[in-house]
Amino acid sequence: MAEKLKKSQAKSPEGGAPVRTPTQQALRRFRKNRIAMLGAVILIVLVVFVIVGPLFAKYDPNANDLFAILKKPSAEHLLGTDSMGRDLLTRLMYGGRISLAIGLATSVFSMAIGSLIGALAGYYGGVTDSLLMRLTDLFLTIPTLPLLMVFGAVFKPSPLLLVVLISVLNWTTTARLVRSKFLTLRTLDYAKAAQAIGAKNSRIILHHLLPNSLGAIIVTATLTVGRAIIMESTLSFLGVGINPPTASWGNMLQSASSTMTRAPLTAIAPGILILLTVLAINFLGDGLDDALDPKREH
User: Which of 287, 123, 174, 147 is nearest to 231 (CA)?
Assistant: First the structure.
């Protein structure tokens, strides 16, 4: 009897189809998006490669072997070695950890900054909105890459400092997006009802409005990861990012620029990994954008 009752509650009254929660509907839309699923699979494979792979690596990623310089791929070195005799596959694994960690950490920090500023501007409006949006416009005028190059040349940044610098310069898109969401959400009945019963502004923002903006924030966060990885790779390629001997995909490309004609894999391998990672993240972001929008049914 109990099983029959559960089954009857799981059916919609009209067509007999199961009633799905918004989360289940979003997952269903995401699974039907083949490009997004491809991006997710590629990203999972890459994460496993950089996290699990080093556990089975036979070589130290920073150990030089002057008797194994620019060796071709073999059973001993599956992808060959670089100009310092270091195993290329091992450095790709460890370098991927740095590049992906910088991308993820930058996304989290920039989302936090942008969400806070956008939420305050959109909820309070008026003078607060004007001041915070002028601050956002000011940051939008800053030439990000040249400024990061100057900082990198002066401070020789660690991965943590690089995350902070990139985050401080990349929160503006999130702030504008969250502000526009809050301007709409604060006028809805449930927000006005919360104000009417005396709920604190902080509670309304954190418990009522921000959760309803998470879809847009998550989509922006995924795309920010890709931008941060490209930015770190660009800075490292130019010699003002992650400092050797610490490996990142960007500085591996930089060090391969003088030897790529003799050992093309030293440049091709990190380049392909950067390309695959950014493409997978963009596919995933587009898929999440479609899945989290209830108006888009496939």
Answer: 147
Looking up tokens 């309304």 gives: 204
Backbone angles phi, psi at 17, to 5 degrees: -80, 150
- The span from the CA of 67 to the CA of 62, in Å, is 15
What sign does the CA torsion over 52, 56, 60, 65 have? negative
Distance CA 104, CA 126 (A): 34
C-alpha 182/C-alpha 75 separation (Å) is 58
Tokens of 23: 């989360």
Strand partners for 18 = 11
Per-residue model confidence as pLDDT tens digits over 60-94: 999 888 888 899 999 999 999 998 999 999 999 99
Q: Which two tokens stand for residue 49?
A: 């490669």
DSSP-derived secondary structure letter, 59: S
- Token pair recorded at residue 156: 């020789």
Alpha helices by DSSP H, the chain: 2-9, 22-32, 34-51, 88-124, 126-140, 144-155, 159-168, 172-185, 189-196, 201-203, 214-237, 249-256, 265-291
At 271, list the tokens: 């380049």
What's residue 186's pLDDT?
87
Query: How do residues 138-159 score in pLDDT, each as one tens digit?
Result: 999 988 888 988 988 888 888 8
**φ, ψ for residue 226, nearest 5 deg:** -60, -45
Amino acid identity, position 25: Q
Spatial distance between the Cα atoms of 278 and 102, rounded to a whole number of angstroms: 13
* Torsion over CA: 78, 62, 58, 47 (sign): negative
Cis amide leading into 245 (omega within 30): yes
pTM: 0.83
- The candidate with the shortest Cα–Cα distance to 102, out of 222, 230, 223, 229, is 229
